[in-house]
Amino acid sequence: MSALGEARIRVPDRITRGEVIVVNALISHPMDTGFFRTVEGQPIPAYFVKDVVVRYGDQEVARFEWTSGVSRDPVISFTLRADREAPLSMVWTDNKGGVFKQSANIAFVSA
Amino acid sequence: MSHADNNSRRRFLRAAALATAGLLGSGALSTGERLLAATAPGADPGDPEVPNEEVARILKGLFGDRPIRRGHIQLDMPAAAEDGRVVPVIIESDLPMTPERHVKAVHLIVDFNPDAHLAAFHLTPAVGIVSLSTRIKMKRTTWVRAFAETNTGDVWADYTRVQVLLNGCG
């Protein structure tokens, strides 16, 4: 199991300008609901990613509001119209103030 | 719990779920839901009934009194989820994503979850199309609702009922 907050973003290897690509992102996070207890009977407090911001260059292109109802180690896939070469960056923020970042480069194949 | 215990428990749960599915397939329950749903504003016959105050409050808060129509959004989930902790969700829409006309938000509601408004996905035309997928937790067998809200104020919906064999919410 990866370390807390370790994140990956996967984009296609070969992207042509103007193409709508699929972006897959994954972060390691327990996404505890607050409804479970440990084997010893101690309550496990709610601990989950509540906000995900996606930026393409300087532009915010999507923002996801999550609850602890998203599964452990959240995955999300979404699309992006790749119309310029720029970094795609994501910031995951959890309910305890943890901030986790990752980025991927959107670059076009040369003709 | 040993692996053997776990396996026999799973076989029992699966058998129970299949039995339940058979009962639901008889149609008595779904007919009742259809009749009630027909009284909701903008509802199509066959829309699931709003099950409780919580979901009613969420819908009112998100969409006010705007009509909610079926169409232009597709919610794909397994008909039966063996483990409610990890249930795949795919949401797609054929609505345009242009600066003039686009889907500005997709909302996912799971009727009997502790936090029924499970996720909101705020989008811009830069995403090109609406195509989202993730994995969610489900407490019990219930309807799942996906809504696409456009920048012009239209609300489109799709619904799917998911059988949950193992409570994923605690």
Task: Give structural attributes.
heterodimer; A: 111 residues; mainly beta; Immunoglobulin-like; four-stranded antiparallel sheet; three-stranded antiparallel sheet; 7 strands; B: 170 residues; alpha+beta; six-stranded mixed sheet; 9 strands; 25% helix; 34% strand
Description:
The complex is a heterodimer of chains A (111) and B (170). Chain A has 111 residues and is an all-beta fold. Chain A has a single domain, classed as Immunoglobulin-like, CATH 2.60.40. Chain A is 0% helix and 49% strand. Chain A contains no helices and 7 strands. In chain A, strands 4-3-6-7 form a 4-stranded antiparallel β-sheet, with no helix packed on it. In chain A, strand 6 and strand 7 (99-106) form a beta hairpin. Chain A starts with 6 loop residues before the first strand and ends in a 5-residue tail after the last strand. The mean pLDDT of chain A is 95. By secondary structure, chain B is an alpha+beta fold. Chain B has a domain at 52-164: Immunoglobulin-like (Sandwich). Helices cover 25% and strands 34% of the residues of chain B. Chain B contains 3 helices and 9 strands; from the N terminus they run H-H-H-E-E-E-E-E-E-E-E-E. In chain B, the strands form 2 sheets. In chain B, strands 1, 3, 5, 6, 8 and 9 form a 6-stranded mixed β-sheet that branches. Chain B is globular. Chain B starts with a helix and ends in a 6-residue tail after the last strand. The interface between A and B is medium-sized, with 28 and 32 residues. Strand 5 of chain A pairs antiparallel with strand 7 of chain B, so a sheet runs across the interface.
Gyration radius of chain A, rounded: 16 Å
CATH class of chain A: Mainly Beta
The radius of gyration over CA of chain B amounts to 17 Å
Name given to the CATH homologous superfamily of the domain at 52-164 in chain B: SoxY domain
Q: How many H/I helical runs of chain B?
A: 3
Overall shape of chain B: globular
- According to CATH, the fold-level topology of chain A is Immunoglobulin-like
Most extensive interface: A-B, 28 and 32 residues
Distance between the termini of chain A: 40 Å
Query: What is the fold named in CATH at topology level of the domain at 52-164 in chain B?
Result: Immunoglobulin-like
- Low-confidence segments of chain B: 1-39
Adjacency order of strands in the biggest sheet of chain A: 4-3-6-7
- Order of helices and strands of chain A, N to C? EEEEEEE
End-to-end Cα distance of chain B? 17 Å
What overall geometry of chain A do the principal axes of the alpha carbons give? elongated
Would you tell me the overall average pLDDT of chain A?
95
What's the architecture of chain A, going by CATH? Sandwich
